[in-house]
Amino acid sequence: MIGGQHERGSRHTSRFDKIGTMSENPPSAEPAPAPAAPPKAPTPAAPGETLSAGDEMVGRELRRSDIETTPQVTRNRTLPIVLFVATCLSTFWVGAAKYHPLDTMGNPSAMWAVIQSNWVEGLTYMGAVLAILLTHEMGHFLQTVRHGIPASYPLCIPVPFNPIGTMGAVISMDGMRADRKQIFDIGIAGPLAGLVVAIPILWVGVQQLDLTTDVGPREIQLNSPVIVTWMMEYLHPEWNDKSDWIAISQVNPWFMAGWVGMLITGLNMLPISQLDGGHTLYGLFGPRAQSYARAFLVVAIAYVVINLEQAAIWSPMLILVILMGVNHPKTANDKVELDDVRWILGMASLSIPILCFPLLGLKQ
Description:
Blueprint: E1 2-5, H1 53-68, H2 78-96, H3 108-147, E2 155-158, E3 166-173, H4 180-207, E4 221-223, H5 226-235, E5 245-247, H6 253-268, H7 276-285, H8 289-306, H9 308-311, H10 315-324, H11 340-349, H12 352-356, E6 362-363
Parallel strand pairs: 1-3
Antiparallel strand pairs: 2-3, 4-5, 4-6
């Protein structure tokens, strides 16, 4: 998930001020000296020729001036590391507690017993879910480095008291420096990179599913996105009638991590605001994307209202998006067009929410 963008203005000053100023001279028969000519930029040397010492000196001054006016990126390392470690601990705990972290939280002896019994499941879930999160965010981050857009390191969000153990990760970037093609590259890179890791993890999880166990009356159940349903139909055709909802007691750490990866990817690729899908949509259509984003918001609100019993879980997200602003901000250059490869890739990526997003979320 790409964090909020804000424009950081910068003021650049030229290294060369007025060089040859005239001073007043007393009356004299001799004419006043002519003003000194400003230094000329070095002329590139022809093959076989060398620059003079004076030209080299001016060239060094110009190159130093270019460096001094290039924005320098200073990234905080302490906070990303602290949040990463905290998210490792929170996802490990949730996995070891078999996705019921509140049952023993607050009782140190009971928590220690849970960790001793289930530490392998905790480590497996922690490693799998963080691999998806970090790959997703590094996809964004490496594109910001490639295009020279100032950005923070990925910031993980630990939540040790929900069944997932995290609220994903974000980066903060100065998106106002990016043009339309660059914002497209940055936005789409995260979901695509995350899916490369999430799909194999989900596949292993679906293979290991056991849906023969009974489901408790008040047990949390996960809604299956389309991609899970397809995997179930291929790997477990005998359970097709059970693939819509999967109980927490029936999952394994690979499936849970893969499901979380689908949730995060599908959510971020919704074509609205400054989500990854919003960046992708704006890269595809430019300012016209605002109309498509508003139309999507109307459809999303209607869907939640019609399916209020289960889909109401998405209401806070819709409210947050509305408060953030539905429209995507303008880029540094909206006139830049995408090439054919980016266009095809972008249009195909609009299917990601349909395939990956669990429309009904959770139920109990």
